[in-house]
Amino acid sequence: MLRLLKTLSVLLLLPLAAAAQDLQSILQTHAEEAASPSRQSVGTMLDDLASSGLPEVANFLEAYQDRDVWQRTTDGLFFYAEETEDDLYTLTDISTGEEVGTAPASEMEQVRPNGGVRREIAGALVAFQLSDPDIDRRRTAVEAIARSPSPDQIEPLRRSIEGEADPALLDRKQELASILLALYGEDSEARIEAIGALSGELSVEARSVLNQILSTEQGVAPELPEANIARVLVPGRQLTEAEAYARLVEEDLAPPAPTDDDIRNALAANIEGGTVGGLPVTQLDDPAARYTAYDALAAEGTVPPRVPPEARAAAVESHVFFEAYDEPDPAVTDAARAALDEVRTRVGFGQVADLTLDGLSLASIYFLAAIGLAITFGVMGVINMAHGEFIMIGAYTGYVVQQFVPNYTVSLIIALPLAFVIAAAAGIALERLVIRHLYHRPLETLLATFGISIALQQLAKNIFGTQARPLTSPSWLDGAWIVNDVIQISYIRIAIFVLALIFLGLLLYILKRTRLGLEVRAVTQNPGMAASMGINPDRINMATFGLGSGIAGIAGVAIGLYAQVTSEMGANYIVQSFMTVVVGGVGNVWGTLAGASLIGGLQKSIEWLNPSNTLAAQTYMILFIILFIQFRPKGIVALKGRAAGD
Amino acid sequence: MTDATETASGPGYRGPATGGERRSFIARNPSVLWFLAALALFTLGVTILSEATGNGALSTSFVKTLGKTLCLCLVAIAMDAVWGYCGILSLGHMAFFGLGGYMIGMWLMYARTEAIVLESLANQPIPPTPAEVEAAIGSQIMGVVGGSELPDIWAFAHSLPLQLLLVVLVPGLLALVFGWLAFRSRVTGVYLSILTQAMTLALSLYLFQNDSGLRGNNGLSGLQNIPGLPSTSQAWISISFFWASALALGLGYLLFAWVVSGKMGSVIRGIRDNEARVRFLGYPVEGFKLFVFTLTAVVAGLAGALYYPQAGIINPAEIAPIASIYLAVWVAIGGRGRLYGAVIGAAFVSLLSSWFTGGGAPDLNLGFYLVQWTDWWLVLLGLSFVLVTLFAPKGIGGLFDLLRRRGDPDRDGDYGPDAGAWRKEEGEEEEITR
């Protein structure tokens, strides 16, 4: 094989050096191997083919591998053949690719290379494919190497790097070359250098290669052997006494100790006339009695003796338990460990960045869901338990619009304002019909709106059914923005983030720069005084409630785009929205923003610390919020002075 | 409260003429006697009609439903005391109820599994050691969540007295700690409601996990089989639990009638109507609130411990925040600020609810649409609840006021936030005791 590689390298360095022979004549010099190749003999022929530098060799090898090459028995020449009629083959010249006539089936014999030979051929082919003018074939060849790396691919890969024109593929090839060298490099220096190059990578592939180099095997011996030891395991710390002893038994360094189960089974097998080992069976519900009976049996020689705990401890004590690297050279493993640590640090930074993005995205959803609740709570002092159902109304609006408008982009453009209008109308109706009559009775408002909430939820269930409805996002929102292997975020989440920013700006503008905003702020601070100044609090209440509900409708469309639309979706977000309002502080846009960021970030961080268990994450977050309220009962951004009301 | 004596002058005011000396607790609270009499009559009726002790007109499962309803009435009284009298809209009392159920369920499940394990191990040639029994029970109970050992929280499950103690201690301590944290930082009103809801959600989410040690969303099951009574029929078990529930309800009614009457009752109602004023008068408001909150939580836990052996199964969904909100709905529909109102509301709405959702109610044909009550009951409940809040804040209990021509109490100044909970007689009690 090495010889093949050397000739290949010669070939690739001097592609047009020797074109003395044609393909057919090379084959004829190795006619016997070519017609019935074996794994041992085919190498010489492949070497010759490769060194010939003929451009058609790659095609031939592919056909050879696919069993498309036939030999004419009359003169021994090789052709590509295809059965065009019954028992009649059309022959194609292997050099020129022209049709050269037909031959009856009796004169043709298929060349059937076996599996081993085909692998040899594939190895030879890689060299051709890596330098193929077609970029797709080069890519396929590179990925084939990545899937099953082997030492003999190093040279062809390195040769092909020099001629590579595509920058992305060049990077990929260099990375792959480092990986191959790190795994199979000739000497330690070359491998250490390649491992050093890998420390700059973030990919899962590079990490798994480094881990592969650092793979260990556990062992036990009376004394620490001469090997590349990763670490020594101390019984009682890194592994339990029982595990340690079990390993000793596995290595035949200690006699097997019968377990309590073994003892029970042995006793059960040796019952004679109601007694076993001299003890009546009825007394054997005590572990000590069982041991006595078993020892009696062992003394008779019917069962292997028990190993007392002291003997087990002594056996464990007199051996060393260790983990040894499979790689014998400590310099290589040290380099790999250092590289892996560096990669892990970089991955850690990447994960922090990714987590921040995730947290931001969740925060923007919570912000959209909670801001409506926050301003109505701030202005009117009532908690609207049906707020989640306005989110649901918005999402179902989006779903219904998609049933009528098949173009997802257009339907989204229609759905967003429509969801705002419908949810706002529902909110205003709720305010006029119910909440208006319950001012100054906040607890009863909470319950009455809860009644609305269960009625609306059940109504949605009756209309749309219990199964989840899809709200499909337009194709330009599919996919994700991928920074590297660690940091990525889907476009939908970016869009929701932008939407949240837009509404943040819009609300700030309305509240700070418009007449309505001025009046809203006045009513928030002191409704009585505002009314004396000629502001109609009734109108302001209605307007804020409509605005808050409308934004919930928009949030519903946004949430529906990445989650399913169900009748319970509002209920899933309502508690988080309450938390956002409570943590952020009432009646303040910045407060809600702070609350949403805190809760979103916190939830993602807890999930990251404990990824297997999102339920636990929510539990801990709620506990945190309950404690947080201890220190800032009015939220992060509390209204101060007279504006605080009490 | 001499101030109130001078200003109280409404048409229903009976004045100090009837109250020169201290009268007995029953005489001051005639509704207690009426309630206990009605409960006794009801219990007698069910006993006569049940399968085990009477002519069998009521099926065992219906007796169980009635017994469960009595437990719900008990927790509703507790809710009324904390909300209708003290003004704390707790959305967490069903969590305490569920915790009580879990605590008794642990013993029921452990003891029953132990009996099953002992029976199956008895067939083996060698009698089992205690450790083997323990291991078999562990894998039997925790096998469903992939475990084989009982976690430490099951340490007391083998003993009924210890576990009964936990029925009281676990909800009580949780309420004490949570209430202390919440009340000391002056969290009130809707903030407090949301916070209790968060606590309930956290608890139910925690119990939903498989590694919570309480079998995750499988919950505890087979609780209707009482260990140690293998030959007793379910008919007898159901009527026994019915009696126990009725007794607990009667005692609970007496307890809370006592708590909310007299001087302490006045302070508690004062906190509901104007917390700041009571604080300025020098009363330790936080202490009173914590006392009421914790006491009601303990009673809720006891009610749960009686409820779940009759229900047979408990899982974390029973603790979800929605259950506690329904509890508030029952009390609101029955009428806040009167204990019998809570009982009426809980019994009426929960029985009606199971009648509608169980398919008992006939479908309503509107000509163009067939209303199936299994689908539309929640819509009806939600809307009627809104209507009750808007137009009849006193709930069903308000009808009794109409009968006895009682209106709102005559008070000067701000009436406080909770119009649904006022009653005329509240203003009079104190003068009567002088």
UniProtKB/TrEMBL annotation, chain A:
Pfam families: BPD_transp_2 (PF02653). The chain crosses the membrane at residues 365-383, 412-430, 491-511, 542-565, 577-602, 614-631. Residues 1-20 form the signal peptide. The keyword Iron does not apply. Keywords: Amino-acid transport, Cell membrane, Membrane, Signal, Transmembrane, Transmembrane helix, Transport. It is a multi-pass membrane protein. It is found in: Cell membrane. One of its GO terms (biological process) is amino acid transport. The keyword Disulfide bond does not apply. GO terms for cellular component: plasma membrane. Coiled coil: none annotated. CDD domains: TM_PBP1_LivH_like. One of its GO terms (molecular function) is transmembrane transporter activity. Belongs to the binding-protein-dependent transport system permease family. LivHM subfamily. This is Urea ABC transporter permease subunit UrtB.
From TrEMBL, chain B:
Its main location: membrane. The chain crosses the membrane at residues 32-50, 62-83, 90-110, 160-183, 190-208, 235-260, 281-307, 313-332, 339-356, 376-396. Residues 421-434 have a biased composition (Basic and acidic residues). It is found in: Cell membrane. InterPro entries: ABC_transp_permease (IPR001851), ABC_transptr_urea_perm_UrtC (IPR017778), LivM-like (IPR043428). One of its GO terms (molecular function) is branched-chain amino acid transmembrane transporter activity. The keyword Transmembrane helix applies. It is a multi-pass membrane protein. Residues 408-434 are annotated as: Disordered. GO terms for cellular component: plasma membrane. The keyword Glycosyltransferase does not apply. Keywords: Cell membrane, Membrane, Transmembrane, Transmembrane helix. This is Urea ABC transporter permease subunit UrtC.
